[in-house]
Amino acid sequence: MSIENNILSRLGVTGIDHINERCRTVIVSALKDNPLSFTEEYLLQSEWHKVIDGLKLLIANHQAEKGIIAVSKSDRPVISDLKRCVEDCDNIDLFFVDNFYPAADQAILIYEVTGQPFSSATPAVLSGSLVYDIQTAVNIYEVVTEKKPVTRRLLACTGEVALPSLVLGHLGVSFREVIELCGGATTTIDEYVILCGTPARGAIVTDIDTPVTGSTTTITVLPADHELVKERSRTIGTQIRKIKSVCNQCSFCTEFCPVYLLGGKLYPHLIMRQIAYGLAEPEEVILGALLCSECGICEVLACPHKLSPRAVNKQIKERLKQEAEPESFLSGHTSGQLQPRSNRDFRKVPFERLADLFSVGQYAEPPKMEPLETSPGQVELLFQEISAAGVLPRVKIGEEIAAGSLVAEAEGSTGAGLHASIGGKVTFLDKERVIIRK
Ligand code: SF4
Ligand code: SF4
Predict the structure, then answer these.
(1) 7-146: which CATH number, 2.60.40.1930, 3.40.50.11540, 3.10.20.30, 2.30.29.30?
(2) Least packed by Cβ within 10 Å: which of 150, 282, 299, 434?
(3) If you measure from the C-alpha of residue 264 to the centroid of ligand 1, how many angstroms do you get, rounded to a whole number?
C-alpha cells in the first residue's frame, strides 16, 4: 500500500522529502538526541502500537524489505509490550543501539544498524535506508488512518520550572503558556531565557511569546547567567580571538569528532589552524566544515580550552552555502568511500555523561510523564512551517474557522498545508503568520 500522494505534507507532517523513494530498510528512531528529551520514552511506552502501525505503512510505501525500530540499550526494561508485538511481525525487528552520543544522528544510526558507513552529506536514500523519528511515525499513522491534520506537538518542558513535564501543545501556543502550564518559572531566578531544542544545537530564545511549531522538541528554562547561555552568547569574533590565543593544535577535537571517526573528511583541528594562523590549508579542509553535525563534542568534551570548533564550523557552513558549490566535495563522501576509524568504538561518548558535559545535569531527571495538555485562547501559526519560499493564505482576517481548517498552503507543487490548531476568529494575517483567537 502506498501512502496517498501528498497526504502527509497536505495534513501537516513536515520534513519528509523522500516519501516516494524506494529503500531496503526503514528505521524508526526512538533514540533520545539529548539528555533533556523524554518524548521518545513516552511514545515507546504509551503509543507503541501506533509506532508499529506507522512503520508498517512506511515499509509498504517504500517497498522496503524490512523495518527496524532503533531503541537505546538503556530502554530495554521499558519496552516489553513493544517487544512482544514485534515478535509477531515478520519484517520488523528491534535494534538495541549502544547508549552513546550522538547515536540519534542519521548517518551514525544508519551505520550502527546496517554496518554501512554513510555520510549525512549525501541523501539518505543512497544508503538504502531511510530514518524517521518516532513522533513522525506516530503522526504518519494518525494522518493516514484518521485523515486528520497534525495540530499538536508532544514536547518536554524542563529546566527552571516548578513542574517539569511532557506537554501536548497546540501548534502556535506560546512558550509562555507552556511554561505556565508547568507551574511557571521557579521563583529563585529573576531573569531567565529559554533553550529551544538540544543543548548542542538548540537556539537561545528571549521572546517568551515565541510559538510552538511542528519542530519544537524541548523547551528548557535556564537562568540568564547559565554557563550554556553564556557560551552560546559568545560572538564568533570572540570565539576566533580565543582560538588564536590558546589553540595548541592538540587535535583532540578531531580525535573525538563522530563524523571523523565514521570516516568523514572533517578535521576540526586543521580548520582551527587555518583560523588561528592563516596557514594555507587545502580547500578541502575548510569544505570539511560542511560535514559538521554541530554535535558539540569538540567543545564540551574534547577541547581542553573549551574552544568551539562547532561554532566556527557553523559559521563556515553558513558562508559556504552562500558562496561555494561544494557538490564535488560532497560526492566524495558517498558511502562506498568512507572507512570508519579503527578506534571509533573506544571513542563513543556515554550518553549518561552528556547532561553534565552540557552543564544541564540538574535538569536531566525524568519529568512528569503523563503529558499536560495546553488549552490556548490564541495561537500564532508560522508559515515557515510549510515553506520558506512562499505560501497562499486560505483564510481572511475576521473569518471564523473551525479547528483543523486549512489556513495556508505552500506555493508550488509540494501541496504542504498548515491547519488551525484551535477554532476561532482570524485576527491577524501577513506574509509570515496567522493569528487565531477563540
Ligand atoms: S561539532 Fe565538533 S565534534 Fe561534532 S561534528 Fe562538528 S566538529 Fe565534529
Ligand atoms: S582540541 Fe582545542 S586546543 Fe586542541 S586542536 Fe582542537 S580546538 Fe585546538
Answers:
(1) 3.40.50.11540
(2) 282
(3) 11
Side chain identity, residue 247: C
Atom of ligand 1 nearest to the CA of 200: 1
Say yes or no: CB of residue 270 within 6 Å of ligand 2: no
Q: What pLDDT, in 10s, does the model give residues 383-431?
A: 988 877 788 999 999 999 999 999 998 887 667 889 999 999 999 999 9
Distance CA 425, CA 370 (A): 31
Give me ligand 2 centre to Cα 70, in Å. Answer: 33
Domain 151-226+359-375 in CATH 3.10.20.600? The answer is yes
Nearest-CA residue for ligand 2 atom 3 is 247
Is residue 383 exposed (0-12), middle (13-18) or buried (19+ Cβ within 10 Å)? buried
Quick one: average pLDDT of 103-109?
A: 94
Tell me how far the alpha carbon of residue 405 lies from the centroid of ligand 1, in angstroms: 42
The answer, as to whether pTM is greater than 0.85, is: yes
pLDDT for residue 1 is more than 60: no
Model pLDDT, residue 236: 87
Q: Is the peptide bond before 326 cis (omega within 30 degrees of 0)?
A: no
Residue whose Cα lies nearest atom 8 of ligand 2: it is 247
Specify the amino acid at residue 285.
Answer: V
Nearest atom within ligand 2 for CA of residue 250? 4
Q: Which whole number is the average pLDDT over 6-33?
A: 84
360 Cα–ligand 2 center, Å: 23
Ligand nearest to the CA of 312: 1
Q: Alpha-carbon distance 281 to 278, whole Å?
A: 8
Protein fold of 377-438: OB fold (Dihydrolipoamide Acetyltransferase, E2P) (2.40.50)
Strands 152-159 and 203-205, sheet pairing? unpaired
Which burial class, exposed, middle or buried, applies to 135 when counting CB atoms under 10 A from its CB (0-12, 13-18, 19+)?
buried
Q: How far is residue 66's CA from residue 82's CA, in Å, rounded to a whole number?
A: 17
247 lines ligand 2 (CB under 6 A): yes
